[in-house]
Amino acid sequence: MGEVMRALTASITWVTDPIMVKGVVVVKALQFAMDIRFHKIVLKGDYIGVLKRLSLYQQDFSGVGMVVEEGKVLLSHLDSCNIVHVLRDENTAAITLTQIEVGQLHDVVWVEDYPPSIHDIIFDDVNQAFI
């Protein structure tokens, strides 16, 4: 518990709608998990609308539906995925990672490491888990 296996920042340049951005983030996270051959994951995020849609069995015809449906296909390839909603102010590591990405034109992956800018956030998160 509390070990960072991989971290990713990814460029999303063609999307302007905030809800669609959240959907693309979910798909990129799921694709990343599949690419590194993870079979059991915890998907945490502050985008409750997208997270809820991933759990629905019926097809999603909303504006973000195409991305949600792609996420459902990726989820079907995993052994398990625990979807967890966190409040935005509890999602500080992800918010900090998005600030690193601003201005980058390519994806950045950390293997068994993470950017120094989120060290204190990770440390606090692990300590909170044991309180």
Characterization of this structure:
The chain has about 130 residues and is of the alpha+beta class. The protein is about 45% helix and about 15% strand. The longest helix has 18 residues, at about 20-35. The model has no long low-confidence stretch (mean pLDDT about 80).
Summarize the amount of helix as a percent range: 40-55%
Radius of gyration: 15 Å
Distance between the termini: 13 Å
Strand order of the largest sheet: 1-4
Report the principal-axis shape. globular
Number of strands: 4
Order of helices and strands: EHEHHEHEH
How many strands, what sense, and barrel or not for the largest sheet?
Answer: 2 strands, antiparallel
Structural class of the helices, strands and pairings?
alpha+beta
Overall mean pLDDT stands at 80
**Approximately what portion of the residues adopt beta-strand conformation?**
15-25%
Contiguous helical run count: 5
Low-confidence stretches: none
